Amino acid sequence: xxxxxxxxxxxxxxxxxxxxxxxxxxxxxxxxxxxxxxxxxxxxxxxxxxxxxxxxxxxxxxxxxxxxxxxxxxxxxxxxxxxxxxxxxxxxxxxxxxxxxxxxxxxxxxxxxxxxxxxxxxxxxxxxxxxxxxxxxxxxxxxxxxxxxxxxxxxxxxxxxxxxxxxxxxxxxxxxxxxxxxxxxxxxxxxxxxxxxxxxxxxxxxxxxxxxxxxxxxxxxxxxxxxxxxxxxxxxxxxxxxxxxxxxxxxxxxxxxxxxxxxxxxxxxxxxxxxxxxxxxxxxxxxxxxxxxxxxxxxxxxxxxxxxxxxxxxxxxxxxxxxxxxxxxxxxxxxxxxxxxx
Length: 342
Fold this sequence. Notes:
By secondary structure, this protein is of the alpha/beta class. It has helices at residues 22-28, 50-63, 78-90, 108-115, 125-145, 164-180, 195-206, 222-239, 266-279, 288-300, 329-341, and strands at residues 18-20, 33-37, 68-74, 93-99, 119-123, 150-153, 185-191, 211-217, 252-253, 309-313.
């Protein structure tokens, strides 16, 4: 069907590869072929899924006269880091409202936020959740009083504008499928703000991709994401009424949040280490580690028995490893002992 995209600014290194995981398929596939869409390779410091969304969001901001991007997320937010670096690249101001206490040591994404020159305010989590809308209004008014225009970018860049990033990615996936001989697939992604899942779900319908899209939620619950993906898709349709009308069916693989957002179990850290050794593919403990673990559990449980090919969308997040590096102390120590014996 005919689809006319809004303007975007080329920021991501795309198309990203679709990589077959031969050894992981033997180890965990139960007869399935496991693939990974390497969106961790969309750039270097701009790595990950957020950059696809920001290509459209920044074009919208500039075309509508905004000079500052005002957004929010956790202290180690991948989206906030990507926004800070994109803003520096394009000469836009960036102001980050972060949920949580500023870490004593600047590490991971928080360090990169500072290096990129973003203005940063950290807030108590309960206050942040309760007052985020008021905080956005306050800072927009503050910028307006100084003769500037700040555009609010929602958590994760997840809205009708950001959805275009993964609508476009589904065009890439269609070409990937043809090249790899994939006739039907399940697509699995981590979902934390819902935007990537919404874009993939819309894109699969718009581009008639022979695939079913699943989100593994890393926070909240299934009901939240069923509603959020549907809401983002509906907002996209309202914002772009000339786009083709499609119906979407969000799907969520619930039960893998663990103790909470950004809190991974020892089993997830072990999986991250195992996959790194097996395929040279590095996940993170906040998003992709939990989602990959959830996907493997669902494979073992027979969820995807109707289809041979399963595609995991690697949404990046490697910088989130470093603030939690102590969880790998035992793994590193064991490797060092093994090397000494060799």
